[in-house]
Competence protein ComEC
Amino acid sequence: MPPPSGTLSHVVAQPGGGASPGFSMSAQATRTRRPRPAAAGRAGLFAWVPVLLSAGIGVWFTRPGQWPDAAWAALAGLLLLSLVAAQMALPWAERGRIGWGLADGLRVGAAGLSLMVVGFGLADLRNRMVAAPVLEWRYYGPVEGRLVEIDRSSRDRIRLTLDQPVLRDLSPDKTPARVRLSLMEGADDRLPALGQRVMLTGHLGPPPAPAAPGSFDFRQYAWFQGLGAVGYSRTPVMSVSPPESGIWTVHRARMAISAEIQARIGGQAGAVASALTTGDRSGIEEATNEVMRASNLYHIVSISGLHMSMLAGFVYAGLRYLLIAAQAARLMSGRATHKQAAIGALLASAAYLWLSGGGVATERAFVMVAVMLIAILVDRRAVSLRTVALAASIILILNPEALTSPGFQMSFAATIALILSYGPWSRIAPYLPVWIRPVAMLLVSSFVAGMATSPIAAAHFNRMAQYGLLANLLAVPVMGTFVMPAAVIAAVLAPIGLAGPALWVMGIGTEWMLRVAAFVAGLNGAVTGIALPPGAVVPLMGFGACLCILCWRQGAGARRLTPLAAGFALGGLMLAAAAALWLTASRPLLLIAPEGEAVGLMTPAGRAISKPSGGSFTVSTWLSEDGDITTQMQAAARPAWRGDKRDRYARLPDGWTVWHLTGKGSGDRALPHCRPRHVVIVSEKLAVPGPTDCLLLDLAALRRTGAVAMDMGPEGPILRTVNGTLR
């Protein structure tokens, strides 16, 4: 018999029988609860977590460390508003005031806004946690500290990083947490041990500012590394006290392993093998780094997800085969061998993390691999967008600044692209002959990873390796088949003194990779210069790609506009905007070095440098960001500048002239040139009592502004500076 009119057609049953608590039959008789439909794509919402955290972190990095209290008050208000909306959405929907779709939208939107605020807060919290004094002037004198890192600079000089430094006449509250010094003259013959307090005489200064507005900001990188001063030393390194014990014993053991590998294999092959195994890259010469970059194999010498996944995959497969063989021989009972193998691979990855020194890139790789292995242990897919999202979220929570690093961007771009390509590959592979599948899979995976990472690499490094696919096809299989397995076997056999054969195999593999790199780098047109894109290009590419990936559904939006279709369209527009910005961007007409030591004028033949020497690092950065693969001496030979080597001048558009005066007495020589429609750049300080007829940039002004970029507008020069101030 149907229920009487005005009553519920059913009552939600409870375990003990009866109606739901809190509802009387009379209340149910007057209010009908609407059934709640399943939200489309609910299972995929977790993939948005790192994207939204990144959005908040990215907003913070638009003005790092400069957000006023009013911004924090606004964010707190947004967070409170989102929490209220999320809390009230369901009750409103249950009472029929809003639809379930709108309620779900409010809750999802509130969660997204909250995650963005959390990302912003994480970046600011990290900024406060790493805060340490930065040296604000040039220092010369004794430097004492504990040696914590040894590496090699881009100029092939050994560098020492010291923590707990002591500087003469500098109070502890003004002393940087860490300093780094390059050793100039053969002082690397007898280096002290890690964990040992040392002393030397050094020149120190604050971390250098960008070479031009929009260039890489080493100051920001150094801040998050706790590096408050950098410099050099020409004196021997003296030991102050014996090496410390504890964790430093472990680090010294790692360096001893590195030295043994280099000694047993020898040459640059041994240095590369040591870098792959222990993370110690101090033995790799800059010439080797250069050919690796030109061949797109530089990622091989930096421990990343590729190395960690190869090692974990080898250990996982080897252990699983051994366990299956043991079960077949009735040496052990039948258990889940894949989980036991995953535990072994996880322990091996942790050991590799320790052995490699635990750098930021290595920690990122370990988190990614660990998440995938743990997914196996809890019966989840090891490789999926969920596991990648979890790994990215963990890294962003621990190190929000990783978002701005090319390593983070490229490793996750490659991983996501490979995951997305697995579906099409799995449908095509069965139609290929068995013998060709491994080669085809390697070709496809290298192509997919290269396509995903090439735009990011070009944006950050201003170059593109044209034959990188060829180099990776020739080198990566050797690394996965010989080098990494040999490293694991050598580690297992080393305690009993039988690592020699495995190291020999490893040396052959690394020597092959170096030969491939040299061959590919020597091909005509191996490297193409790429101009630096505007700052908005990389964020637009990243968030646009994320929107396209996460919002794409087969057939979505075919008949009507849905939120997912709108998100996909927005992602496509962001990618198109990034491409348009990059393709239409122009480089500054004139660039001025932060100390006035060099000036670069853009000409039809490329940027012409005012002097063949001086400011070499700044000038090389300018040329690289112009997409110009040339040297400073070649750029100085381009027709633009005239005059003697100390007083140089060049013609600018609209009848303007630029003068660059350097050397002793340049200030006195500058005043006669200070006339209307003249830009005068001086490498000395000038005492000018009042306004001048020219646009004058002396050493004092440039130290306030940092590097300067100049273009010509309808009313004269338009200046952009690193520090945003001219007076």
Summary: The mean pLDDT is 85. The two ends are 89 Å apart (CA to CA). The chain is about 50% helix and 15% strand. The chain has six domains: 1-32, 40-129, 139-244, 273-529, 537-584, 590-721.
